[in-house]
Design goal:
The complex is a heterodimer of chains A (584) and B (325).
Chain A (H helix, E strand, L loop, with lengths): L3 H23 L7 E6 L14 H7 L7 E3 L5 E3 L2 E6 L5 E6 L13 H13 L13 E8 L2 E6 L6 H4 L8 H8 L22 E7 L3 E6 L12 E6 L3 H10 L4 E2 L9 H6 L3 E6 L2 E7 L9 H10 L2 H8 L4 E3 L15 H4 L6 H10 L20 E5 L5 H16 L3 E4 L4 H10 L5 E7 L8 H4 L13 H12 L3 H18 L2 E13 L4 E2 L12 H6 L1 E2 L5 H15 L3 H22 L3
Parallel strand pairs in A: 1-10, 1-11, 15-16, 15-17
Antiparallel strand pairs in A: 2-3, 4-5, 5-7, 6-7, 8-9, 9-10, 12-18, 13-17, 13-18, 14-18, 19-20
Helix pairs in contact in A: 8-11, 9-12, 15-16
Chain B lengths: L1 H32 L6 H4 L5 H10 L6 H13 L13 H36 L4 H15 L2 H15 L18 H39 L2 H8 L4 H13 L1 H12 L6 H6 L5 H10 L3 H29 L7
Helix pairs in contact in B: 1-14, 5-6, 5-8, 5-11, 5-14, 6-8, 7-8, 8-10, 9-10, 11-14
The chains are: A alpha+beta (584), B mainly alpha (325).
């Protein structure tokens, strides 16, 4: 008993110390409610020319704005621009800006700023945010303060989606910097005072790798935002983000790796969940020069043999939507081609029949089919090891194919060391890859044209090439739509790949402090529309809301396994203190 | 005295050779494993191979390898580490933003854990095979074999989430205004306490056993028996005679731990979302950020080698046997 006394004293001192320290934190609730967001990584830079990581763009979107943006209906809508017209030959675009837009430092936005921005993007290859988008830009002619003409080197239908979505940068701030002889976009770190846009928020404070704080731009051209303060914290672990949002320490959690299984748990804790369809096509890509993928009938048999719904159910825990055989996801409503999407259904008998038609039959009774000259129907699938969903999907494909007498070997490989170099060098038979789509179908041209840099499938189809070129110069939307649907049908027919799923990301957000959230299916809850629409919910009750959150938390109670774990850890600590305090 | 100087000279020459070798190795390794602009086409399929070459040229990555190597070595000696490809600013700035936070976690953790490890190691060895020894040693073994991030996560969940005593992430309360420096210090300390505790526990689990083994070895030696025969008190033998010798291997180990401090503590930093070097180095490698990897490894090599040199000198000062050539 005597020995325990000093320990108890020690513990008591520790706890009273904690009691003193703790209140300092819970008092940090500001008068004006702050919107608190968690991102997994800090922005790589605040340099809008060259920051391209998706987290950088989310941060910079608070500050900078484009001429056009993708609307909630998945159509491009004018933003800083008021309208645009295109000449009949598709080479001259006349664009009118909205009047009365001010930069955050009070100077007006004019056509000169746009000219400066686009021409600089065109000039500097390290200005990567927009460099490759300006490929067809020849020059810009300023007509007056609010109107300019954009001359292209050749007609281009995807001007809005590629060029006009780039952020506009103030000429009066950047011209002196850019004119410096040694200036290279990707080697310049702007000062906070140089990070000036037209957007709803401006930077108040930035602590690298820690948080960034914004305050409302009271002169914002769409009206000052109702939420005056925003803090974005960088929280690397998805699990920590989930804990924080359940506890009410953050209002939005943004992380690609939040486990879909926690969705119910979050809802039980009063947290809303936005299911964000990430417009990426995760696909099983074929090398069209490797046997057996050289055979179109075989590829069709693959499409019949695998069950996409089941793959999503098991590999993605239901968080995904089945892929279209025409690649374009249904969220890009205007370009999605239903006919291509429904070209195949899960039907193993049909798959067997196609293989029989090829005269690939199991001749030696080992369960694997052979060609007439005795070659086994066998190949490898490479999923990257870091993504368990893709590994699982590959294993499921292997099992489906076993049913129809085809042998697939799953080779789980390191992405950087094995899978990616293999894909680039066209060395793999087949692989599982996730690639981005864009709201404009022109992205297919750089992926599926013969010899295109992102054509990992070695697809070479003159008809597809012709259609891809044609859609790029067809300005008339309904005509273009028809061509695009033809491309999708053709791709579904030729099958250089099978899109397995478009992933759905769990994006939790709390509604107890703010209201006016705008859910856009193909974007995070934190989109431009939410930023404009969000307002505090009865600001005087902030503190009581906190109290109820704490209550519900205690009511829930921790799960038994973690209690046991924590108890073990605690016993260890207590024992260590005990022993180290005990003197012989 | 002559022995000291020749030892020092030999050590410094060895250090320089090791340094150049290590730096060369890193230079080659980053280039073997990845290509910083290799995934550019994946992110931005519109980019053409010619454009990728233009970007490479901005960083001098279009030059032949030997020229890049010469640039790297020459710049390194001038203190120029180049520009981070990912963060797009001088490598040294990227490092300096994170280094203080890593040191804030690791300096106290190493110092406290070293003292506790030496003390506990000594005690357990002295009471070799008693209940005291078996209890503490098995706890240490348990901690040692526990995945470190799991322990960290457990602490975070219990103290941070369920008890709400500590913050769940970061090194300071975001956006808070501090009236005095003292308030700021308290806030920083409050954020650092859990990660430091986890680090201390892990480090004790590792290094207490070193001390214990070293001590047990020493206890079997003749001079300890001699001291016993002289009739000295147990405490005096333990502290003055045995521990002084047993502590020698710990000098090197501890010095090296200070050297590796720059490396950060990747798992702890990640779990507690702490802005530190560990995560930075990891992400630099994942992003194929040649210059950042080169820069951090160069500094790391330098500190480890210097720490090693200090350890060797200390060792020579403490242990006369080393000087005998």
């Amino acid at each position: 008993m005597i020995k325990v006394a000093p320990l108890m004293r020690y513990v008591l001192v520790m706890f009273s110390l904690l009691m003193i320290i703790t209140p300092t934190a819970s008092l940090s609730v500001a008068e004006e409610p702050t919107l608190r967001i968690a991102l997994p990584s800090p922005p790589q830079t605040l340099n809008v020319w060259s920051g391209t990581s998706s987290w950088t763009i989310i941060v910079l979107n608070f500050i900078y704005e484009p001429l056009a943006t993708i609307g909630p209906e998945s159509k491009y809508v004018p933003w800083l621009a008021e309208s645009w017209n295109v000449s009949s030959d598709g080479k001259v675009w006349t664009i009118r800006l909205r009047e009365g837009i001010l930069w955050q430092d009070g100077k007006p936005l004019t056509a000169e700023d746009v000219k400066f921005t686009y021409e600089y993007f065109k000039k500097d290859p390290t200005a990567r945010r927009g460099f490759s988008d300006m490929e067809y830009l020849d020059h810009i002619e300023v007509v007056d303060d609010y109107m300019f003409k954009m001359y292209l080197t050749e007609p281009f239908a995807a001007v809005v989606s590629t060029m006009l979505t780039n952020p506009i940068v103030p000429k009066h701030i950047w011209e002196p910097i850019v004119n410096n002889e040694n200036f290279t976009a990707s080697k310049y770190e702007p000062k906070i005072s140089e990070v000036i846009g037209t957007g709803p928020y401006k930077i108040a404070e930035y602590r690298p790798d820690e948080y960034i704080r914004f305050t409302a731009n009271e002169n914002y051209w769409k009206g000052a935002p109702s939420v005056k303060n925003v803090v974005i914290r960088f929280v690397k672990e998805a699990d920590t983000q989930v804990m924080m949002i359940k506890k009410g320490e953050i209002d939005v959690a943004i992380h690609l790796a939040i486990n879909p299984a926690v969705e119910e748990d979050l809802k039980a804790a009063g947290v809303n969940v936005h299911r964000y369809l990430r417009p990426y096509f995760y696909h099983w890509g074929f090398n069209l020069q490797h046997f057996p993928f050289t055979e179109i009938k075989f590829r069709k048999a693959m499409a019949y043999a695998i069950n996409l719904t089941e793959i999503i159910e098991i590999a993605r825990l239901g968080a995904g939507e089945p892929g279209s055989y025409g690649i374009i996801p249904p969220v890009w409503k205007e370009w999605f081609c239903k006919e291509a999407a429904e070209m195949y259904t899960y039907d193993p008998d049909k798959a067997r029949q196609l293989l029989d038609e090829l005269n690939w039959i199991d001749r030696d009774g080992d369960g694997i089919r052979e060609t007439p000259d005795g070659r086994e129907i066998k190949f490898e699938i490479y999923p990257p090891s870091y993504d368990p969903a893709r590994v699982r999907a590959a294993e499921m494909i292997r099992d489906y194919l076993k049913e129809i007498g085809v042998k697939a070997v799953v080779r789980v490989g390191d992405w950087k060391g094995v899978v990616w170099p293999g894909i680039k060098a066209h060395k793999l038979d087949s692989f599982i890859l996730g690639s981005g789509t864009e709201p404009d179908p022109d992205f297919m041209r750089v992926r599926f044209k013969t010899n295109a840099s992102a054509n990992y499938y070695l697809l070479s189809d003159p008809e597809i090439d012709r259609l891809l070129e044609q859609q790029a110069i067809t300005i008339d939307r309904s005509k273009r739509k028809e061509i695009v649907c033809n491309i999708e049908r053709k791709l579904a027919d030729v099958l250089p790949l099978i899109t397995l799923y478009y992933p759905v990301i769990i994006n939790p957000y709390r509604t107890d402090r703010f209201e006016g959230w705008v859910e856009v299916k193909f974007d995070w809850i934190l989109n431009r529309y939410t930023l404009l629409n969000l307002r505090p919910k009865a600001p005087t009750t902030v503190k009581t809301t906190y109290a109820t959150t704490t209550l519900t938390k205690t009511e829930m109670g921790p799960p038994i396994i973690s209690i046991a774990g924590v108890l073990i850890a605690l016993i260890i600590i207590v024992l260590m203190i005990l022993f180290s305090l005990r003197r012989s | 005295m002559g022995g000291y100087i020749s030892l020092l000279v030999r050590k410094i020459i060895a250090l320089l050779v090791t340094f150049i070798a290590a730096v060369t190795f890193v230079f080659i390794m980053v280039r073997l494993v990845g290509d910083p602009f290799g995934t550019l086409v994946l992110e931005d399929p519109r980019i053409t191979p010619e454009q990728v070459e233009m970007i490479k040229a901005v960083y001098g990555l279009d030059k032949p390898l030997w020229e890049q190597y010469l640039d790297f070595i020459i710049n390194a000696f001038r203190g120029e580490l180049g520009y981070s490809l990912y963060y797009q600013k001088p490598v040294i700035n990227v490092i300096m933003e994170r280094l203080p936070w890593t040191l804030l976690l690791l300096l106290p953790a190493i110092i406290i854990s070293t003292i506790l490890s030496i003390y506990l190691g000594m005690k357990t060895a002295w009471r070799h095979r008693t209940r005291y020894d078996t209890t503490i040693t098995s706890i240490a073994l348990f901690i040692r074999s526990t995945p470190h991030f799991w322990l960290a996560l457990l602490f975070l969940m219990f103290f941070g989430y369920y008890l709400g005593l500590f913050p769940l992430a970061g090194s300071v309360t975001p956006g808070k205004e501090f009236p005095t420096v003292f308030d700021y210090a308290v806030d920083v300390l409050w954020h650092a306490l859990l990660p430091i505790t986890v680090l201390i526990i892990r480090e004790i689990g590792m290094y207490m056993l070193y001390m214990r083994n070293s001590m047990i070895e020493v206890m079997g030696q003749d001079f300890v028996w001699m001291a016993r025969l002289k009739g000295l008190s147990e405490g005096r033998i333990m502290y003055r005679h045995a521990a002084r010798v047993a502590i020698l291997p710990m000098v090197t180990v501890t010095a090296l731990r200070f050297g590796f401090m720059i490396n950060g503590a990747i798992l702890t930093e990640t779990v507690f979302s702490y802005p530190g070097m560990g995560r930075l180095v990891f992400e630099a490698i994942m992003n194929d950020d040649y210059f950042l990897v080169q820069g951090t490894f160069l500094i790391m090599t330098l500190t480890v080698l210097l720490a090693n040199l200090v350890a060797d000198i200390l060792y020579a000062l403490l242990d006369p046997r080393v000087r005998v050539t």
